[in-house]
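Input sequence (82 aa), recorded before submission:
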Amino acid sequence: MTGRTCPHCAAPIKETAISCPMCGSDEQTGWSDSASADWLLPDYEEIIANEFGCPPKKKSLKAIGVLVVLFLLAFSLIYFML
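Predicted structure, token format:
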């Protein structure tokens, strides 16, 4: 077997094959020397976007600062009331 692949399903095929053993593709269904299976290669960025959605937004430093101030205020009120 050589490095020849089916342009429809990318299955390895023998050089002397008249049709693909996996999908049955042949000259009449579009299998020719000019056909290619490049469309089967995955697009990494598209896969990541589909699997994980948009990247998470970074938390705002302002929101973290407000939470810290509220925590300190609550702590100081509890401390001085005891």
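Checked by second reader. Helices lie at 44-52, 61-81.
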